[in-house]
């Protein structure tokens, strides 16, 4: 009798345990199975990096981290003595080119023109003497008094003086006409080239004044005053807080809750408020961002997608790095 009672008690305990497990499973299925999925994102903003085209030394900062700046504000000044030296060289080259151009336009000086004329007259006189000498020697040769050698020498001297006279006349004509059209064009081109060099160096000097290209907030300043920076080296970062968005990493089986152009709601814990965002971007993060492995579950891999959403209306005090919580139903 006692043994039968013991068996009944064991059976009753087993049935009770099974009933408890069933009840707990049912409760878990209806509660945990329907619990919404929470996806955490992060607020981000467009940033641009301020840098210089020329190397130099940080002479002075006009802003510091956290300052609000407007487009066109002067952020810092660089000291670049090498560029200033190049400007002096370019300006000297421009002055030299301008002088040559003025000379080409003005033409030959009166003194040079007179000198060329005198040289031509001298050559003409020499030619007349050489011609008379040749005629005299040639008559004597025809009379058989002078040798052929003497006549040839007189002829050669006459031809040489004739060439000298032509060259002197050409020099005088060139001096009288002034520089050729091609020379004037070349001189003018040299002036323009020198002006271009000056403008180029002047643009480099302008680059020593670092200006804000858009409104924003200074988030980072890298070198200190007095430090050297190279070409293209970052000086500071500026965040454009009027261009903000929230980025979520979403498993693909939850993507049905997101669509480009659609709207979602997200809670911002730092501000203790909810805001509406419009999805503007979705992209697969690649196989390295899979959530489940095929071999483990026997199913397909679930990839991760990057989803970006912009506020429908500006969210006051929203800053980069703040969390955004999006709740979706499974």
TrEMBL record:
A Pfam family of this chain: HH_YBHG
SUPFAM superfamilies, per the entry: HlyD-like secretion proteins, Single hybrid motif
InterPro entries given in the database record: HH_YbhG-like, Single_hybrid_motif
Domain YbhG-like alpha-helical hairpin: 83-202
Protein name: Auxiliary transport protein, membrane fusion protein (MFP) family protein
Organism: Phocaeicola coprophilus DSM 18228 = JCM 13818
């Amino acid at each position: 009798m006692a043994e039968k009672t013991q068996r009944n008690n064991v059976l009753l305990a087993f049935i009770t345990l099974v009933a408890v497990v069933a009840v707990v499973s049912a409760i878990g299925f209806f509660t945990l199975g329907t619990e919404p999925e929470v996806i955490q994102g992060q607020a981000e903003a467009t940033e641009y990096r301020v840098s210089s085209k020329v190397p130099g030394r940080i002479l002075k900062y006009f802003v510091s981290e956290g300052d609000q700046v407007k487009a066109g504000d002067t952020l810092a000044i660089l000291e670049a003595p090498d560029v200033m030296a190049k400007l002096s060289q370019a300006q000297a080259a421009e002055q030299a080119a301008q002088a040559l151009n003025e000379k080409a336009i003005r033409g030959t000086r009166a003194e040079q023109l007179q000198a060329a004329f005198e040289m031509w007259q001298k050559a003409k006189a020499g030619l007349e003497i050489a011609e008379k000498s040749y005629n005299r020697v040639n008559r004597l040769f025809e009379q058989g008094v002078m040798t052929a050698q003497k006549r040839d020498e007189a002829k050669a001297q006459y031809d040489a003086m004739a060439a000298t006279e032509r060259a002197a006349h050409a020099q005088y004509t060139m001096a009288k006409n002034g520089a050729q059209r091609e020379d004037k064009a070349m001189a003018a081109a040299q002036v323009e080239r020198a002006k271009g060099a000056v403008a180029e160096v002047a643009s480099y000097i302008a680059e020593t004044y670092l200006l804000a290209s858009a409104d924003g907030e200074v988030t980072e300043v890298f070198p200190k005053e007095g430090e050297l920076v190279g070409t293209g080296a970052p000086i500071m970062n500026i965040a454009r807080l009027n261009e903000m968005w929230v980025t979520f990493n979403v498993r693909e089986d939850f993507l049905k809750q997101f669509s480009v152009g659609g709207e979602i709601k997200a809670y911002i814990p730092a501000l203790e408020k909810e805001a509406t965002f419009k999805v503007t971007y979705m992209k697969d993060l690649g196989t390295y961002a899979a959530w489940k492995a095929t071999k483990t579950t026997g199913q397909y891999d679930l990839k991760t997608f990057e989803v970006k959403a912009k506020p429908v209306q500006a969210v006051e005090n929203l800053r980069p790095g703040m969390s955004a919580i999006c709740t979706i139903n499974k």
